[in-house]
Amino acid sequence: MLAPLGVRHPQPRNAHPALLLRAPHLRAARGPAQTRGFHSRADDAVHRWADKRRELGIKGGPLFCTLGGGPVYPAYVRNLLKRLAEEAGIEKRVHPHGLRHTFAVELDAGKTPITVISKLLGHSNVPTTARYLDHLTNSQAVNALQGVDLPPLGA
Fold first, then answer.
1. Which residues have C-beta within 8 Å of that of residue 36, sequence separation ≥ 6?
2. Strand 35-37 and strand 25-27: pairing?
3. What is the pLDDT of residues 28-62, one digit of tens each?
């Protein structure tokens, strides 16, 4: 669920559920106050989680919390992703920060300008975001070149 939000794991811990459900954004919990956007595809999952919180009697506190209402610590998320990857037969390392990279790459593939991606990720400069997106292989670069209509070279 964090990937469509584009946030680092610790950031949404203190987001109040009412804030998140009023508008498609949440306030970052670390660093200077800023608003982060989330994609509308995350709406259903966020609302289902809000319903589950109410069902469990969780009031206030961090939006992303344990079933008991306590904070979800980074080590828990790392271990959970590792376990889920093993269960799914994924051999590649799966980690929370990789979800941010996936979010950035998916936005880039959808033709979102890098300046917008940078803002959504909370980066202070575009070159930081460019490092996230610099995973192009040589064959991908050659394939992209083949699709470009270049003017003919001089006769």
1. 5, 6, 7, 11, 25, 26, 27, 28, 120, 122
2. antiparallel
3. 555 555 566 667 788 888 889 889 999 999 988 87
Indicate which CATH number applies to the domain containing 13: 1.10.443.10
**Inside any domain, residue 117:** yes
pTM: 0.62
Task: Quote the number of domains for the chain.
Answer: 1
Question: Containing domain of residue 110, as a range?
Answer: 2-134
Residue 122 placed within a domain: yes
DSSP notation for 93-126: ---HHHHHHHHHHHHHHTT--HHHHHHHHT-SSH
Any domain includes 149: no
- Is residue 144 assigned to a domain? no
C-alpha to C-alpha distances, 124 to 1, 29, 115, nearest whole angstrom = 24, 16, 10
With b for 16 or more beta-carbon neighbours within 10 A and e for fewer, the 32-68 pattern comes to eeeebebeeebeeebeebbeebeeeebeebbbbbeee
Phi, psi dihedral angles at 34 (to 5 degrees): -160, 155
Q: What is the DSSP string of 6-30?
A: T--TTGGGG--HHHHHHSSEEE-SS
